[in-house]
Design brief:
Number of strands: 10
Distance between the termini: 20 Å
Strand order of the largest sheet: 1-2-3-4-5-7-8-10
Structural class: mainly beta
Order of helices and strands: HEEEEEEEEEE
Radius of gyration: 23 Å
Shape: elongated
Largest sheet: 8 strands, antiparallel, barrel
Amino acid sequence: PKEAKDSLSGFFLGAELGYSAIFGIVDEKDSTTNAITTTTRTDNFALGNIGAKLGYTHFFNKWVGLRGYASYTYAYDYSNTITKTPASGTTATTTTTTPILDSHHQVAANVDVAFKFFDVNGVGLGAFVGIGAGYATSNKIETAENVTTTTNTANGFVLPVNAGLEVYMGKHHNASLNFRIPTLAYSKTIGAGTDAEGNPTTPTTTSIRNLIITLGYSYTF
């Protein structure tokens, strides 16, 4: 019926909070032998993240709908690199602490199919599955001796698969458990070229996949 359909459709604004897991691969290619050394990096949900989304949901009936929206996610991780340097002529050491911020941004346009399993007096349980297309970038920000250095580690096109569970609380309120699953890695190659003496330098390629898991809330107008 039209009344049931219209009670779920509308523009919405949402916020998300959760954790991310980074799956990265670093390839170092020896410029002389062309041998490639591969290092696998896995940060098991070491990064917190926050996000926002804005879009429109249209339910064709009481149970099935289509949702289109734009999303933004910021993931971050703070750490410290501690370096101990021996003082010349003594047994004392100088300790230097360098704060490091790993910063990851992802923006995407998304289309999901939403399903509602049951409804009791306006409160229901559902699920969704869909796909997004967008852009991601990762940076490492280091602060040493009051000097901040920002290094771009990877960037590129992303194609995440979206899936999750939802709780509908009347027309306006929606709570969700969201999974944004990476299908493509984004990457960057640095160091390719020659040094000041004309010798080839070792290029390093960093590839990153970011699995994002969040709890979300959205309000439908």
